[in-house]
Design brief:
Shape: globular
Radius of gyration: 17 Å
Helix content: 55-70%
Distance between the termini: 11 Å
Structural class: mainly alpha
Largest sheet: none
Oligomer: single chain
Order of helices and strands: HHHHHHHHH
Number of strands: 0
């Protein structure tokens, strides 16, 4: 049970009930992480919009985005997010558990195309050592045909994942 009062799907009313219905239609259930946002339906709406944007991203692949989330969550020790995104890579992208474990030990080994590994490494560096990012880092990605919007979106994704991890860890949200 989280440290903060959340609203279960069967207790939701109004806008929250509508948002939960959207989640149930997409996932079949309302995760504990989504229930954390029940405290603020407006933030839940923003979170769902954020997720929708990245689910349909034209250039950042699902495996790349899941890898970013795993690497950010690994540093934050957010079991909920590590497990969820590992499941996505295994069940939807065909990765093995050994491949996920290897990436967590050394992200350069991620089961991704070379240009996506480069983007993954930049996103991790941005979260861990943001002051060290320089023009050479961005030019290396540009040379691999990444656009500035792609770079921005990847770093934003990592930063938002960090924020989510902090919220889940702070309020002790348990795995579903």
């Amino acid at each position: 049970m989280p440290l903060i009062q959340t609203i279960a799907p069967e207790e939701a009313t109004g806008e929250l009930a509508e948002l939960y219905a959207t989640i149930i239609a997409a996932r079949g259930s309302v995760s504990n992480s989504a229930q954390l946002f029940s405290i603020s339906p407006e933030l839940l709406r923003h979170q769902l919009s954020f997720i929708g944007y990245y689910m349909n991203h034209p250039t950042l692949s699902m495996p790349l985005l899941a890898a970013i989330r795993i690497m950010v969550s690994s540093a934050e020790e957010c079991r909920f997010c590590i497990d969820f995104n590992t499941g996505m890579l295994v069940n939807m992208a065909g990765w093995t558990l050994d491949q996920v474990a290897a990436m967590r030990q050394d992200p350069k080994t991620a089961n991704l195309p070379e240009r996506e590994v480069a983007m993954l490494l930049l996103a991790i560096k941005a979260i861990r050592l943001s002051h060290s990012i320089n023009e050479d880092d961005l030019n290396a990605l540009r040379a691999m045909d990444w656009e500035d919007k792609d770079i921005f979106d990847a770093v934003n994704h990592a930063a938002r994942m960090l924020a989510s991890d902090i919220m889940l860890n702070t309020f002790k949200v348990e795995n579903d």
